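Researcher: Let's walk through a ligand-bound prediction step by step. First, I give you the protein sequence. Second, the SMILES string for PBG. Third, you return the three-dimensional complex as structure tokens. Ready?
Model: Ready.
Researcher: Here are steps one and two:
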Amino acid sequence: MNKTIRIGTRDSELALWQAKTVQSALETLGHKTNLVPVKSTGDLNLDQPLYEMGITGIFTKTLDIAMLTDKIDIAVHSMKDVPTALPKGIVEAAILKRANSKDILVHKGLDFLESKGTIATGSLRRKAQWLNKYPQHAVVDLRGNVNTRMKKLEENSWDGAIFAAAGLERINLTPENYLTLDWMIPAPAQGAMLVVAKEKDEFCRKTLSALNHKESEICVHTEREFLKTLEGGCTAPIGALAEIRDGILYFKGGLYSLDGTQKFEIERVVSANQTQGFGKKCAEEILKNGGSELMKKIREVLK
Ligand SMILES: NCc1[nH]cc(CCC(=O)O)c1CC(=O)O
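Model: Step three, the predicted complex:
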């Protein structure tokens, strides 16, 4: 008899949707499951910008603890929220087929774009890229889960706010008035879901491997390797996107100063079966061409 797999999830609407998706995939394969919602600090502490809290894995910490104390067997995460180094004893068990990886601007009319305006985001990466493209605009901080952020946008006089397309699509919250920001480089692993398990739990690891999507895995691992090589453990404005078409991996990566005045971007291609070390190589190119001085400055400000 197979054991019941306890699936840990955060309790936001998006997190629950993602966990239920994994749950029904496992049940389709004939497994018994149980959903265990766990409150996480990332949604609770809203008095401070996320990056100021200085904790890695604010969204994942509580689920990591629940797993390591054997309250749950597996946990489902938005992969972009997961630090590049997993806690000891926890491993990647499956990366699901990636959804929309793009950022979108939800707006109230686009006339402001070429004049003055104010947009809202809590992400350093989105803020820096926005100010680089629209230096005449103001960017205000906006935090909370996607439902909270959408509500705050409605209540305030801001011209727009930036969201991950995948987050809104999953919970049917995409409004009519949005613009896909094709020029903006998304967060590494944006739109991808990661299931983690205990390293020693061979049953769950083997079971979950059936849900792994190889091409998505190659792409997000390349993006996260790029991130890991650049960041050295801090939340800098870094974007990365890898896409595979016809056996070729197309990579775009970017590092930005916090105020958006400086940017280092790279675009490269590689054969999709030779991606080993490719993300690292792209990051090293940026570091060599001035990126390491910028990272040093960013670390001094954010520490
Ligand atoms: N940082 C919060 C977060 N984490 C994952 C998503 C959306 C889903 C995804 O990108 O996989 C979001 C919302 C957003 O960035 O607008």
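Researcher: And what stands out?
Model: The chain is about 35% helix and 25% strand. The first strand starts at residue 5 and ends at 9.
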